[in-house]
């Protein structure tokens, strides 16, 4: 059997990870892979194998955010696996192989989930560093899913800066996390799985006022510790034409060049310090480009919708505050400006991860990230190409300035930096310019022609007499179904929406309540509640409602 035509061949590292997983029978298995490398695929391929072999009868996919649950459900559907996103319980709806939910949902209903969890439940924990043994999510996760025989943990950074152990992660005698399979940034760029990134630091003469005193200096100067935050904020000031606006102009010229040559929908991202700063940055970009950029604020209820629209559009620029967490997947990003005040290593790596993703069908082109030449950021840029495993933080080694790798942590880091600006200060002047660039991964250069590929394609592998991951097995008793153009959860949701609309319409016609119509309809179909209905029963419900509206029922 061959893989479905719409499913890409497995990458070599994914094959290696699957081979390693094939020996795994019980306990946890930690995959540490660089952002953009494609850790979703081997996790789902292994799930297919276990479902085929009847070694697992359902999947509990747990991740940090609700948008991620839908991304996982869509990816699973391409392999014939049906996951119900944001499901209220572990028992999946009829016709589904499992659920995709957030850590928060699991923690809120941990006892109910524990009563539904079986040894044969396959647990997949995406971005597992969000868990902590002593924290609510970690405790709820362990209580809810502790009965499962297998936990597959996925993370690009399998360590926590608060030193709390991640449930299920193995640590050596020194307390260092030990992945079962690791695939770092350098590996991904060498294999042309991720983009090479070029860092372009900017620096220059700056001056700012503190009370009655005027202070001058550049990032190359040794200023007093209480002046560093003020110097940094002067560099990213959107009000001083010689500061961030000058760098935004450089970044826009870079992006324009890419869009005018061979990447017409290439995008740029500015990560701002706060909401006011983002609006000021947006105003500068509007003036520079002639059109307003997309602005995404973490306080905006429509933030995820705006992100999705930008991802699928050809708009040039997006300005964001905090909205750079796991799951923000915009492969067309080629140019970035680092203008947040958060400077921890983990947040820096998270932001860099937004620019390493590749576009299927395009050569492995480079990305550029403009950042203040602040010593801490320069050190992060120089270190980010090192192997992942040696950087794993030792348990008990606490860095109070390095918060968790998520949007809330980024907001907190910005707030800490802002506190350092007190007492009152004012940015006066700046004359910034790009300094010598730093090439990520030891000077790796972008591939300019179309001859590059994502490594040598390797056909999906299976065990002797077993299934071929990626192939389309026949659906039977929990085995994955054929690859679908529309995920089952989306079909089901559309049918439920149509049913709801027709029930309301019939209620108005018959002058009956929604509850009365629902009860009559469930009786006709033979179900106790609509949540339990199969696809076929939902379709039957809609037919009955149309007949009733036409006077035939």
TrEMBL record:
UniProt KW keywords: ATP-binding, Helicase, Hydrolase, Nucleotide-binding
Pfam family membership, one: ResIII
SMART domains cross-referenced by the UniProt entry: DEXDc (SM00487)
GO molecular function: helicase activity
Keyword hit for Hydrolase: yes
Gene3D superfamilies listed in its UniProt record: P-loop containing nucleotide triphosphate hydrolases
Residues in Helicase ATP-binding domain copies: 20-176
Protein name stated in the entry: DEAD/DEAH box helicase family protein
């Amino acid at each position: 059997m061959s893989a479905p035509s719409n499913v890409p061949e497995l990458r070599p590292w994914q094959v290696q990870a699957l081979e390693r997983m094939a020996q795994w029978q019980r306990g946890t298995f930690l995959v540490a892979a660089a952002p953009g490398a494609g850790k979703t695929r081997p996790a789902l391929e292994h799930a297919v194998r276990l479902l085929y072999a009847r070694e697992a009868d359902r999947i509990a996919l747990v991740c940090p955010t609700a948008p991620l649950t839908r991304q996982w459900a869509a990816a699973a559907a391409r392999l014939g696996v049906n996951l119900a996103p944001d499901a209220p319980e572990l028992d999946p709806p009829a016709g589904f192989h499992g659920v995709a939910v957030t850590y928060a949902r699991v923690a809120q209903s941990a006892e109910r989930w524990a009563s539904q969890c079986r040894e044969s439940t396959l647990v997949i924990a995406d971005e597992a560093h969000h868990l902590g043994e002593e924290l609510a999510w970690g405790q709820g996760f362990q209580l809810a899913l502790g009965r499962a025989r297998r936990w597959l943990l996925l993370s690009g950074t399998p360590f926590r800066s608060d030193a709390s152990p991640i449930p299920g992660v193995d640590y050596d005698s020194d307390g260092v996390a030990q992945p079962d399979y690791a695939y770092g940034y350098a590996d991904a760029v060498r294999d042309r799985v991720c983009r090479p990134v070029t860092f372009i630091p900017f620096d220059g003469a700056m001056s700012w006022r503190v009370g009655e005193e005027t202070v001058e200096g550049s990032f190359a100067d040794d200023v007093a510790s209480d002046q560093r935050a003020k110097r940094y904020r002067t560099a990213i000031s959107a009000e001083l034409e010689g500061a961030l606006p000058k760098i935004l102009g450089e970044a826009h010229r870079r992006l324009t060049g890419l869009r005018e040559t061979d990447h017409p929908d290439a995008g740029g991202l500015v990560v701002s310090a706060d909401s006011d700063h983002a609006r000021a940055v947006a105003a500068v970009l509007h003036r520079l480009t002639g059109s307003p950029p997309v602005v995404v604020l973490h306080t905006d209820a429509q933030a995820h919708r705006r992100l999705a629209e930008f991802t699928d559009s050809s708009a040039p620029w997006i300005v964001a505050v905090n909205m750079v967490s796991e799951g923000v997947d915009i492969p067309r990003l080629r140019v970035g400006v680092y203008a947040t005040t958060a400077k921890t290593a983990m947040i820096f790596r998270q932001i860099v991860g937004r620019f390493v993703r590749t576009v299927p069908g395009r050569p492995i082109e480079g990305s550029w990230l403009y950042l203040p030449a602040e010593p801490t950021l320069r050190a992060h840029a120089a270190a980010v190409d090192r192997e992942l495993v040696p950087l794993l933080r030792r348990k008990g080694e606490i860095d109070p300035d390095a918060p968790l790798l998520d949007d809330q942590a980024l907001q907190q880091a910005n707030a800490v930096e802002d506190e350092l600006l007190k007492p009152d200060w004012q940015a006066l002047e700046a004359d910034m310019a790009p300094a010598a660039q730093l090439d990520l991964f030891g000077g790796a250069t972008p591939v300019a022609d179309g001859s590059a590929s994502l490594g040598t394609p390797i056909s999906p592998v299976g065990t002797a007499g077993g299934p071929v991951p990626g192939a389309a097995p026949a659906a039977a008793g929990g085995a994955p179904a054929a690859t679908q153009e529309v995920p089952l959860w989306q079909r089901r949701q559309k049918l439920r929406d149509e049913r709801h609309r027709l029930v309301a319409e019939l209620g108005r016609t018959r002058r009956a309540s929604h509850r009365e119509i629902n009860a009559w309809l469930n009786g006709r179909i033979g179900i106790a509640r609509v949540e339990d209905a199969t696809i076929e029963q939902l379709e039957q419900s809609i037919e009955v409602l149309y007949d009733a509206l036409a006077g035939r029922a």
